[in-house]
Amino acid sequence: MDTRPNKDGLIDDIFELKKDARVVSLINSRIDLFRENQKKDNIYWFSELCFCILTANSSASLGIRIQDKIGPDGFLNLSLTDLREVLKEEGHRFYKKRAEYILEARRYKNIKDMLIGYDNEKEMREWLVSNIKGISYKESSHFLRNVGYLGLAIIDRHILRVMYDHNLIETIPKTLTRRRYLDLEAILEDISDAVRLRPGELDLYLWYTQTGRVLK
Questions:
Q1: Quick one: three-class SS letters along 24-74?
Q2: Is 119 a catalytic residue?
C-alpha cells in the first residue's frame, strides 16, 4: 500500500469535480446563500449558532431538522425543559447538554454585533471558541461559513476521511487540539489555493466527494 502523501491526487479530484456543471451549480447556489446570510440580523445569526451547537458530536442533518422545528424564536425563548423535550423527541443523543448550551448562549444573542467588529475570521473564531460553550474550532468555523465567511476550514469526520484516504494524515484522530486543528487547516489552505477556492468552498466539494450531498 502506497503511504506517500497524495495532495496532487486530491487536487486533481477537485478539478475534475469542478468540471461537473450540476455539482458546481449546486455548490455555488449554497455559497450565494451563505453570503446572503451575512446580511441578516442577530436573530438569524443566533439561530445558526444554535444549529452549530447541535451538530457537535452529531450530524448536520439532525441539526437542520431540529432548527426547522424550533425556529429562531424558539432558540431565544423556549424554556430549558421545552428545549430538552424537542431535542429528545428528535433523537439528539446529548439533548440535556445541548439544551443547556443553547440557554447559556443567549447571553450572546446579539452575536452578529459582537463579531463584526473583529478584523478577520480567525479572530472571530477565537472569540467563539473562548466564549460559547459546546463548540470547538470545527463548529465555530462551520457557523462562520454559514453566515458568509469562507476563509476557514471545517474539519469534520468527512474531511478527515478525505485527508486520510489521500495519505495527508496517518490516522483519523478522535479529537483535535487547537494546534492539530490549525496544522490540518494549513494543509487544506494549500489545497484551496491550488484549486482556486476558499477553504469554506473547498469544504463543500470535499463533503460532496464523501456524501454525494451539499448541506449547510
A1: HHHHHHHHHHHHHHCCCCHHHHHHHHHHHHHHCCCCHHHHHHHHHHHHHHH
A2: no
